[in-house]
Amino acid sequence: MFLIRLGFLDIGWLDVLDITLVAILIYQIYTLVRGSVASRVFVGYLFVYLFYLVVKALGLNLLTTILEYFISVGALALIIIFQQEIRRFLLLIGKSTNIGNNPWIRKWLLRQPDLTEPTTPLKPILDACKMLAAEFSGALLVIQHNDDLTKIADSGELLNAELSKPLLLAIFNQYSPLHDGAVLIADGHIRAARCILPVSDDAELPATMGFRHRAAVGMSEATDAAVITISEETGRLSLALNGELIIGITIHELEERLSQYLSKPRN
Ligand SMILES: Nc1ncnc2c1ncn2[C@@H]1O[C@H](COP(=O)(O)OP(=O)(O)OP(=O)(O)O)[C@@H](O)[C@H]1O
């Protein structure tokens, strides 16, 4: 059944639905890559594709073949260039469709057990953060969740020490040889210090945010770890989760968010 007839074009309900869905998809991709270097690549690729459609419609066979080859190789290149954006996009979909995160649904519909306390005790971390923030000591703390962070640990100095507030304070003391970079915490242990984290190229981060904060966001984009930063300049605490940075979080809020985020199902 046709909805509109535009000259030789018959547009039906399905075509309208198709065009709307493609428009929403392109808009979502655009908002994800907006501001980054990848956005220029995205717009460039879109233009090449539109040019290809015109060339094909005109019946220019040689140019169509060349562009087809370019577009198919380009699709592979796009996946590599947009790694971070694709990951963010899938995480977003995964998060918004993960009904299993709702405690009521977990318990009564999925018949899954309750959530346990995080495997890493939060008290030493929170106490250390409070003190470091009060002293304006810069710090970067990565708390492992489910993803394997061996590569990150290997980029720094392996410690495998019991997690404690005094040890965290000693590491982030400005005279400590371990204070630069990030500390990696997993299963109640400080696995490593001086770790190097991936840096985010998110153009929407405030210009005042330096590399410590960009590294926190980058790490939370690339993995499911929770990352805490303490600013050396302002003493402000921030928390990065799934690529989002919560700037100027209070200790109380930090505790709530961490214990909720790091809780795992009881076996
Ligand atoms: N990629 C990274 N991985 C791990 N640590 C990093 C990384 N980039 C920066 N850092 C740490 O952050 C420290 C401070 O960096 P910078 O001053 O650029 O950050 P900032 O976000 O402005 O933080 P602050 O508010 O504390 O100044 C560096 O000395 C280093 O210890």
From TrEMBL:
Superkingdom of origin: Bacteria
Record keyword Isomerase present: no
GO MF annotation: an example: diadenylate cyclase activity
Keyword Nucleotidyltransferase: yes
Enzyme class name: transferase
The DAC domain, residue ranges: 83-253
Pfam families: CdaA_N, DAC
Chain ranges passing through the membrane: 12-30, 37-55, 61-82
Database matches in HAMAP family: DacA
Quaternary structure annotation from Swiss-Prot or TrEMBL: Probably a homodimer.
Family: Belongs to the adenylate cyclase family. DacA/CdaA subfamily.
Name of the protein: Diadenylate cyclase
Protein's organism: Fibrella rubiginis
Gene: cdaA
